[in-house]
Amino acid sequence: MDWKTDWGLRGRMGVTMFLLFALYVVFIGVLIEVFNVGIIFTLAMFGAFSLAQYFFSDKLALRSMGAREVSADEYPDLHRRIERLSQQADLPKPTVAVADTQVPNAFATGRNKKNATVAVTTGLLRSLDDDELDGVLAHELAHVKNRDVMVMTIASFLSTIAFFIVRWGWLFSGDNRQGAPVIVAILVSILVWIVSFLLIRALSRYREYTADRGAALITGKPGALASALMTIDGRMDRVPQEDLRQEAEMNAFFIIPIRAGFIGKIASTHPSTENRVERLRELEREMETA
Fold first, then answer.
1. Do residues 279 and 231 touch, judged by C-beta distance below 8 A?
2. How far apart are CA 83 and CA 7, in angstroms?
3. Active site residue 247
4. What is the rounded CA–CA span in Å between residue 90 and residue 172?
5. Closest CA to 92 of 19, 35, 141, 130
6. DSSP letter assigned to residue 248
7. Cys-Cys crosslink for 109: which of 20, 61, 143, 165, Cβ 3.0 to 4.6 Å?
8. Which of 140, 208, 247, 284 is catalytic?
């Protein structure tokens, strides 16, 4: 398998990561100035939080989805597929998990290639044929190979800190001695959260395109993933709204996000299904003429 690099996407991701890095440097600088704390203490605090998020984000993701690790005896076909596709992608076989939900979706989590999990829903297993299922599983393995879970966890960390400052900072703003500094920190945090929210969404969309390309290279069948995306997208409309609301917080992990109207599309973590399918069809034509 020739794992080619899409330099256009790589360049856009690089620019987005640089902008996030610059934004967070300014954010940390403002917090140090406002609260008059040492840079070593600040970096140590952020480091402790980031390590906790790095090591436990996978467990939190699985728990929030109600997914559980399954054995080869329970899901032999699923294990065989993931083992075969992992060999084709030159990856260690990840842990396999299943979530019992009607929502047809899949996601990958884990801090590195040796500590990864690929999870699917029972709704997905019932919805796709063999080639389509291979395409979706290969897409998740491409995320693992590209270390996307680690990248997105790191990228979103300080955005999460900014969100909590906005959410809880008002509790401390009434203190006469700390009121003004805390309000400044809250205003800066609001700005940081909004800008980082949009940048992280853009980064996530670029990485979805890259994972789609990786899946096509792993299976050699871009059309199968394109067909799977259209099948999942079509079936999403049949899932009861209460089920969709329960799973919506996992959008960044899913192969297809759960949409929530116009605003949901603007702030989506994923490109539109139409754009993804169009790119996969173009790649299919390239592979046929190569």
1. no
2. 29
3. no
4. 52
5. 141
6. G
7. 61
8. 140
pTM: 0.76
Query: Quick check: is 2 in a domain?
Result: no
Where residue 15 falls (left for φ over 0; alpha for ψ -120 to 50; beta otherwise) is alpha
Helix axes 179-219, 148-168, angle to 10 degrees: 160
Record the tokens describing residue 14, joined without a space.
Answer: 């690089």
Q: Please state the domain count of the chain.
A: 1
Rounded CA separation 254/106 (Å):
5
CA dist., res. 17 & res. 204, Å (int): 11
SS3 94: coil
Task: Summarize pLDDT for 184-225 with one digit per residue, the tens.
Answer: 767 777 787 788 778 888 888 888 998 999 999 999 999 999
The half-sphere exposure of 261 on its side-chain side, counting CA atoms within 13 A, is: 3
Residue 106's beta-bridge partner residues? Answer: 120
Q: Which residues contact 172 (CB under 8 A, 6 or more apart)?
A: 178, 179, 182
Q: What domain range is 273 assigned to?
A: 7-289
3-state secondary structure of 239: coil
